[in-house]
Request: fold
Amino acid sequence: MESKIRGIITLNYKKMSNLTDYEKSVFEKILNCRSEAVPFMFTRCDRCSSVHPVYKSCKDRMCPVCNGTAPVKWTAMRESEMLNTGYFLLTYTVPSQLRGLFLLNKKICYDMFFKAMNLSLAEGIKNNDRKFHGNGGYFAMFHSWEQRLLYHPHLHVVVPAGCLSNDKTKWINSSPAFFLPVKKMSSDFRKKFLSYLMRELQKGKLRIPQEIENPKDYYGELKNIPWVVHSQSGEQGKNPEHILRYLSRYVAKTAANDRRIHKVENGMVYLKYYDRKKKEGRMEVITEMQFMKRLMLHILPKGFKIVRFFGFMSNRYRAGMLALCRALLGVPLSNQEEHAKELLNDTAFLFWKYFKIDITLCKDCGIGHVHIIRDRASP
Reply:
């Protein structure tokens, strides 16, 4: 079945003005995804011997067609790193007054977002005056949308309900239902972000929205606006597995997918979304061009990493520090399971584990299993 989103892009992307070369390349990759004249490889059924071509995917994060295996592999890897403790999902947002600046300076602002979150959270875990304080470890994922695909940059942070003591000899549990005071986290995050922002303003590296006449005065007013950090524990209805599977949907894809589109008719897109205030599903009807403009809001900077790891979860130290954390949580090193990398990268195994779907089953005979061959003549 042809992708509805790709159909909209096909009809409209050349009509859009002021596209950068990079934005053009994103749309062109999507349109050419799995459509090459020469197949990348073939599969053959071990029972009926039917052969089917496999076309190379573009692997772009905006693509509605490919990247189906990336979320499953990402979930499996993160689950292999989970500690035997509770977890919290923290959500950091910025005021709406900053969205114009973010859109004009995506790379700089998104990086500042991560830095301010990390510095404020690490200091909050380390320096608070409760029994729970020390060295934290967590990872964060960047999202730029809300239900109607409008621009709403925010960070989801997954953090265990505990930390390492400063001397790394003890695991210190937090309350399973309360991590840190959200007002204090919000205030600290605002302070750090505005510090980074003023530094960039002084360097003159930021493009300023036209409606702002005096950037320093305008953004100085942000000190008096409440910033929001939301904290949700596993006890509040989201256990670690649910958190990971929710986030995994957007590891290699953006918010728009064909399931969100009810239909495309007469140049109009019928977009389904969930109204969180009224707690009900709703429908919005917008033009195809409006839909394209919303898509463009969420094109990420080239090479931008939407998932980043911090503290004892940092890439450089993660394996050793997780082993130490598990030992301090009562799991001896000799008993710690080493997850086989082959299984974490085995797509067929992971699809069966999470969805009970056998992706190797032949679609023609429904009995045999397909395996990859390089060309039709391969045995």
